[in-house]
Each structure stands twice: as structure tokens, then as C-alpha cells.
Amino acid sequence: MRNVIIIGCGCAGNTAAIYTGRAGLNPLVVMGQEPGGQLSITSEVENFPGFPEGIQGPDLVENMKKQAERFGAEYVWGTVDAADLSKRPFRVSIDGEWQETRTLIVASGASARWLGLPNELALIGKGVSSCATCDGAFYKEKKIMVIGGGDSAMEEANFLTRFGSEVTLVHRREEFRASKIMIDRARANPKIKWLTNTAVDDIYDVTKGEVTGVKLRDLKTGKVWDQEVDGFFLAIGHIPNTKPFGGQIDLDPDGYIVSKGGARTNITGVFHAGDVQDRTYRQAITAAGAGCMAAIEAERFLEEEGH
Ligand code: NAP
Q: Is 134 a catalytic residue?
């Protein structure tokens, strides 16, 4: 029987582990499919307070893990594939092995949606990014491309014009899913060039270890051409990692956890932290703050229950 199981070891999960570890609760952290979360696939992090020279994303999460282990947090490889939250103690299945816990902190994050191109994964952090706020500043006076037709794509394209010499927005349809106000704002920005009905077929150049260009295809005419690009930003949505909790934890139509205030979910003793609930900010520092909140709430809950 565990006092607390934390699902996920990105910024939210690791911070929850530091706090619950330091509170003497011996947390078990299930590392999940993408250990380190979104930070593990970014390069330099320049906006996490306390690192005036910046820090590599993977180093930041590894440091957090070490810090949590210092306070007795235990990390296990594996993924939570099922959960029974119908009664306490809760039960979670880690790759088929069931564990009992008095409290649960769900910090399983949201995974960026990728196009699924063969070269895409190899160039993540080397020109391919899913986070304009995180990586935009690396593309000062460079050619930037943004993929997507939703609010995120509009927002990110606008934001990236602060840095890039030009920003090309590529969308697979003629119509945009984004709200009118966001489209209007982007349309009014003279630095944004628009390519609709266009698909990305390939990203270059894996041999150089950096993005140098893309192969594009006009979906109406079939015309194929290459275009020079330095920064390639995906804004085609995120998928919250909440599959094992559907039907138990209240989720919104897109699968994000619905917060009941603070770090609370609809289930007493089950708390949320980070991107699994937050579709708005999605920053390392906000996830870390949320992990801290979840840990404090779990600790208080256990105390009230007499543990
Ligand atoms: P989204 O609304 O789901 O839009 C995703 C976009 O990516 C769509 O245009 C979609 O094209 C495209 N897409 C998806 N898969 C693709 C693929 N495989 N290849 C090419 N294109 C693909 O996601 P989002 O923009 O991240 O927004 C998520 C939610 O957050 C929305 O509710 C949005 O309103 C909200 N949001 C709000 C703000 C704001 O108000 N400031 C900012 C950001 C996000 P199709 O349209 O063809 O499906």
C-alpha cells in the first residue's frame, strides 16, 4: 500500500515527487511512455526561473528527478494501463501489475500531435518543435513554418513573427478551425504568409542534424515543391494522456481532466497536475507549480484521513 502514486515524471510529476517525498510519504512515480515529458524533447529552456544561462530540457527534468530521489521518491519504468478509482484504496495497473494507493496524482501530461513523417522525430529539438513559446527565440531572423489551422496555429504564427524574418502558415484545408478573431489578427500581420490546401511530405535534413527545408504538396493540384525553412513548428493539437481514467475521472470532450478547484478532481483523493488538465499555459513552470499544489493537497488529505 502506497501513500501516493504519481503518474508521470515531467515537471508536474517530478515536483509532486519532491514535495511528497520531502513530506515523508515515499511516493512511487510511474515514469510513463515519455519519461521527462515535453521537456525531454525540447533543447534549451531559457524561461525557467533560476537558470540565468538557460538549461537543457532533459537536464532540467533529470535534476528534478534526482532531487525527488534524495527525499525518498521511488521511480519505476512502466505505464499505467488501467485504474480502479471506484473505491479507496485506489488501484492502478502498471504494465499489468496492480498497486494500491491511498492517493493518486495524475501528472500524465498531454502529448503533442505529430504529423508522423519519417524525419520528424529525428529532428525534434533540432528545428522541429511543438512549442513556440519554448523555442521561438532560437529563430531570430530565420525562416519559420507553422503547421495547423486552429487557434494555436494562429497564436503561434503571430507570436513567432517577433523572431522570424518570415513565418509561413501551412494548413491542409481552405477553411480554418480557428476562431474569427484569431484568424483576423493573424491575417492583419504582414509577416505571415499563407499556404492553404497544402501538406508537408518531408522535412530535411537529417544528415546535417538540423532543419533546412521541407517538401510541400498542393492538395488540389498535386504540385510538389521544396521550401527553405529553419524552424518547423507543429500546432496541430495535443492529446491528453487520460485513457486509463475515462468514465472515472471527469474529463472534458477533448479528454482533459476537469478541475474541481485547486488540484482536485471529481474523485476525493485523486489529484491532477500539469498539462493533463491545463490546455492553456502548458509551461514547465506552471506544471511545476501544479505539481506542488497536488502534493500539498495529497499530504493534507492523508493527514485528515489519519495517515
Ligand atoms: P485544434 O483546434 O484541434 O486544431 C488543430 C489543427 O491542426 C486543425 O486545423 C487541424 O486541421 C490541424 N491538424 C490536425 N491534425 C493534422 C494533421 N495530421 N496534419 C495536418 N493538420 C492537422 O487544436 P489547437 O489549435 O491546439 O486548439 C486546441 C484548443 O485550444 C481549441 O479549443 C482552441 O480554441 C483552444 N486554444 C485557444 C487559444 C486562444 O483562444 N487564445 C489559443 C490556443 C488554443 P483540420 O482543421 O483540417 O482538422
A: yes
